[in-house]
User: Fold these one by one.
Assistant:
Number 1:
Amino acid sequence: MQIHNRPKPWDIKQFLPLSTPRVMVHYATLCRNIAEMSDFARRHNLALRPHFKTHKTLEIVQMQLKHGAAGVTVASLSEAEALISAWETDPSTGTHPLGKLDLLIAFPIVGDDQFTRAARLNGQARLTLMVDHMEAARSLHAFARRNGITFRVMVKINTGLNRCGLDPDHKEVVSFVERLLELTHLQFIGLLTHAGHAYGAENEAERERIARQEGEIMAQLGEAVKARFPSLPVEISVGATPTVRISGTVSGVTEIRPGNYVFNDRTQVRLGSAT
């Protein structure tokens, strides 16, 4: 990927010598998009944890963190490994100018092979995993206990994408959290969701409905968990570029995880979440 300031007006001749395929990014627009989402998060007192999968570019991650992002969301162990590997520290201090990476792996992992990879990353970054099934959580806990470590975990909620996550039933979610708290080598952080079905919205009104529903479902579930465990901190994380500017304004939501906003492609324009 190359990031350039785009000359105005466009002159197609300047691109003819370039080999293809090639991704080129208008730098000023990229900077504006990053700054605008960061400003939105600050205005609404939200943590911003952008998705890495849109750009998979170290330079853009650094730009996002410099603009105040609290951490990074990755979609797989492989993405986490690649990002940590590229996160070079100062040999004299053993630290990075932007600090230790704070990563959320927003996809459930299973099996000792994946748990071992996560444990290795856990020592190199502040890592949070996602769980949505009690047997998988118990398996992760057993691995952590055997190895004398603790994993931070968030519970995934299905708010309509129907890919993974618990159904948004208050009793079911509270019961799941209650059982999770018994697993002493897992640290419960909060609830998260991804309203990715907003990308299939047929118009702006449908997108807005999905976004509002995402925020309200999650906020209500957060209240249900806090009613059962009043002293328990519960982060409420929502995420998808088409929804966060609405779901992120719902009282009780604490974190947003957009990804595509750095580019705002034609899909965002079609959905009315960008111009």
Number 2:
Amino acid sequence: MGVAAALALLDEPATTKLPPLECLFTVDEETGMTGASGLDGSMLSGRTMLNLDTEEWGDVFIGCAGGGDTMLSLELERAPLPAGWAVRGWRLGGLLGGHSGLDIHEDRGSAVRLAARLVEGAFAARPGGDVALVGFRGGDKRNAIAREAEFVLAGPPEALHGAVAQAVAAVFEELVVEYGSLERAMSLDAAEASAAAVLTPAATDRLLLLLLGLPHGVVKFSHAIPGLVETSTNLAAVRVKAEEPSKLTLEIITCTRSSVDSALRDVRVAICRIGRAAGAVIDQEPAYPGWLPEPEARVVKLASQVIEEITGKTPEVKAIHAGLECGIIGEKLPGCQSVSYGPTIRGAHSPDERVEISTVGPFYQATLALLGRLADAN
């Protein structure tokens, strides 16, 4: 929606009162912010930035969390599938998912974490070693709470379809009790599968150490701003990175956020420590900066005025527990004043993402009014 609004501004007639405009379009905002990170600040002369990327119409955002991703590559040993063993797969789905910053405070279920609990339940039911993990994958984007995950188990047919299946079902029922009032559409499906190899017990232990041991969810709420998440981390995805007869390499992706640099660093260090304990190879990208609030900035006051005039309500001026590009871009533009607002968007970074159409018109009207006042101020 921000791109559409910027393009519409460029197509406004000459009679529209506007200041000199520079429209900046970045790539990769949803998956890594590499576009903003790679920006050469000398390209831009303006020092007032309107970020048209926020998802709650009527509110004005003036700060955000910083963050960074960690990728853990885990090479897992395989052994041939024992003769006579059956193979069966399970798929956990129907979870809400959502944005790993904006929705993390709701304690929505992570399909990756919950599926790992199902696997752990299967092994707890068969301590004698006659069950094996074949594979595991789940989640999608780094900044989305995982909605789906799947795993495959193998074992003697009577055990796999008996005690193991019963144990998985029992743990799922526990999850329904834990999350049922929130995750109303959570489902578990099973089907026969095939495989030529299984993970060794040691490899399975290493994988479960990560999937059950890595932090996930809210780590700390802010002491300064009631209700604002200060620090969180998202166990985002498990992907197959490479596959050979004798080994399976999985990549586990986490996304950590915080408005406090030391807290961000602490959680990322913990992730690295846990990863190394499991024998993972760590690739931790440099953290991107947060956006320090400037509530007295001229553009903040003007944005608040025009939104109040259009909506009839005083906008809430606040910070957000998500990674907006304002912090990254602002760091490259000394003296830049920024504000962020936008139409209402639901289900961001998920297949259910949608815009509330009734907020698009007022949002664009506010943008024109704000730019008009900035033109007068210049």
Number 3:
Amino acid sequence: MNAAEDEFFDFQTEPLDESGWTIKNVLSMPIVNKKEEIVGVATFYNRKDGKPFDEMDETLMESLTQFLGWSVLNTDTYDKMNKLENRKDIFQDMVLYHVKCRKDEIQKILNTRERWGKEPDECEEEELQEILTEVLPNAKKAEILEFHFCDFDHSELDLVKCGIRMYYELKVVDKFHIPREVLVRFMYSLSKGYRKITYHNWRHGFNVGQTMFTLLMTGDLKRYYTDLECMAMVTAGFCHDIDHRGTNNLYQMKSGNPLAKLHGSSILERHHLEFSKTLLRDESLNIYQNLNRRQHEVVIHLMDVAIIATDLALYFKKRTMFQKIVDQSKTYENWNDWTKYMMLETTRKEIVMAMMMTACDLSAIAKPWEIQSKVALSVAAEFWEQGDLERTVLEQQPIPMMDRNKADELPKLQCGFIDFVCSFVYKEFSRFHVEITPMLERLMNNRKEWNALKEQHEAKVAAMEAANKAKEEAAAARRAWCLLHCRAAVCCSHDCPTDSSRGRQDRKRLTEPQSSSSCFNSELHEQSPEVRFTNGRNEIFNGF
């Protein structure tokens, strides 16, 4: 722009400053951000050489304004990120407030007020240990070392106490200097972190942790892992489904849940993992607080691998690798040599651990029948609840497994689930360690029970179909019989199908004089009633 010739610069009747500077040439361009929004204007006045701005100056100016646009956008983005981070911290604090074990709740286990007249954080570790020795259940009496453990007779608080006992049985409390109060707060907070839903609640979370503990101790899989790794694996079992919503990964994607946008794969599993890490970042809940840096990295990594492994999609990918490890174990005559070989390779240990998590997550299917049958109904009920949501919210037809209108197919679905998902992992673990055979035996027994129910249902359906078919055949025969008698002008049954308008027309036609082309010709009328009946029946049946 030539400022001297533009009316916009008429105000320049004299120099603009004491140096005598005036505007002669102007180069001005908008500053545009990535969203193509004008966020400012860049203006240059008077080239130093006194010449007007040219195309080269415009090109340089365009590059500069693009850079300025990005800079402004980055600044805005940074401010927005800070605000989002602050909001996240606020929401996280709100969640922790409702999840963390309160001072009055911890007294249900560590009753220091009643015992010592002070709060747990004011007590010595020896004093807290004295209380825990009295209130924690005996491992054998509580049967937490058994594959057939049943939580039905235990309250949720009892399960918290049983969980604390497991850390003592693993001998990690003193070894890794876990503060007693922190351990109690952590386990209690885990129980509160699970939602009050039909199946994926604290009871399920505890059962998975208990099965992991039993596989390690009773199943003798602990021989492959250090105490630190065992602690991480049991903790992962307790945490693996925390804050579950009662719907699966596919529903999160279909419903557009923010979790699906945040996590590309293993959506819920990654959420459970992040929730667990959030709890562990709180100093009052961090049972790993006295580990060194290397130890802390190990336990967090193992929790990552273990919790993500509960995604069944990953289980199917790793089955072949696990089977090869089991086959390889059979080539060793000396069990100690095999143990040393297993412990040398981290990848092998993680594959076995991933399979252990699957075996734990599905462990309800390998419980005694009186337990499995009840748990299966809880699982089915939660699936049906998701099916209802799919039908009402998503306006989609749910798959049979989640359709409550097909509840009678549950035995058939359970048999299929055992055959195609569960049987492999328990068969291979039974081959791997004979101590785990009871799980396979109960699985097979449950398969027989479900199959018996399936056959009973199929027999009932077949009987109903046969009855309906017989009823239809009887109705068809009755219609034919009635039509025959009407044709012979002898039917008087009130439920005769010919009592319809069509039947009345047929009777009228039959009672009227017939022409020579009629089926009842004069020759037929001359025959005896028995002959007319026989011929009429033949004619009706030929008509069909």
